[in-house]
Fold this sequence. Notes:
The chain is of the alpha+beta class.
Amino acid sequence: xxxxxxxxxxxxxxxxxxxxxxxxxxxxxxxxxxxxxxxxxxxxxxxxxxxxxxxxxxxxxxxxxxxxxxxxxxxxxxxxxxxxxxxxxxxxxxxxxxxxxxxxxxxxxxxxxxxxxxxxxxxxxxxxxxxxxxxxxxxxxxxxxxxxxxxxxxxxxxxxxxxxxxxxxxxxxxxxxxxxxxxxxxxxxxxxxxxxxxxxxxxxxxxxxxxxxxx
Length: 215
């Protein structure tokens, strides 16, 4: 007598392997191995291109995959990232925009001043005082992008000066004595690379007037 390959019940027909479809399905499912998609960098790039072109993809995204598709927090474009990877933007440009966008949230309160008809967020009363000073002198200024620098261990870091004066190629960065001491390495790095004035508001005004006598 022949028995079912799954439940071991006696089979009425010796030509059969299972006693019913349920046993056949249960047996076959028990032998299947979970599929895990591991995409290489090239695979991720190709999937991104497929999404951009809005092509249909046969890739099935489930809890067993190691990737996920989400919207960029800046431009809202779809992009692919590895699951559990702390990434919220689709590109380096969007990541930097995200940093600059959130910059005004560094302090518990912020200040707003109009510059060339545009409202600009400032992080401290010192910055606000410098902005008023520049506006009074009719000096063109902007909130600059970050500058890259490397510490003594060769680690790549970013420096966000508070003001940039395009007409003078000059950066202004109001700081108190404690912050200056903490940022000593960074300040020394940039002193020989860019035109930078830092210190309290009074010192910045004095140095700027000396730097640009006609201001």
